[in-house]
Design a protein that fits this description.
Helix content: 10-25%
Largest sheet: 5 strands, mixed
Number of helices: 2
Structural class: alpha+beta
Shape: globular
Distance between the termini: 53 Å
Radius of gyration: 20 Å
Length: 125
């Protein structure tokens, strides 16, 4: 009985390992990024996506206003909403987010102030 329990426990542990390594849909603002990402940011683009090594995706948004950001899952689409709100100054601010996509999403859509917005994508090493 003890051997049977041990075998069943081992099988369950092995089967649950892939679940630990699966990606989960997430979107977080970051304060610091690698130097190569900083160098790839185009100051003339209001919105830009930068993919580093096929592993980490950065969304860069530049605005003179404060920005409220959110992420929604709509069918197979990861929908990022960037809404500008009033600010006290006219200084251009840079907002940088990391985006992780899971296997159930195959499309990324970004809406700025409710409008679907195209963006250039840069791939770096």
């Amino acid at each position: 009985m003890k051997k049977l329990f041990l075998i069943m426990f081992s099988a369950l542990a092995i089967l649950s390992l892939p679940a630990c390594t699966q990606k989960k849909l997430s979107f977080d603002e970051v304060d610091t990024v690698p130097k190569k990402v900083t160098e790839a940011i185009n100051p003339d683009d209001q919105l830009q996506m930068i993919n580093k090594n096929g592993k980490v995706t950065y969304i860069v948004f530049q605005s003179k206003q404060d920005v409220k950001a959110s992420l929604e899952s709509v069918d197979k689409t990861a929908l990022i909403k960037l809404d500008e709100v009033d600010a006290n100054d006219n200084e251009l601010k840079q907002y940088i987010y990391t985006l992780t996509i899971d296997e159930s999403h195959d499309t990324i859509e970004i809406k700025v102030n409710g409008e679907s917005t195209p963006y250039p994508m840069t791939i770096i090493d």
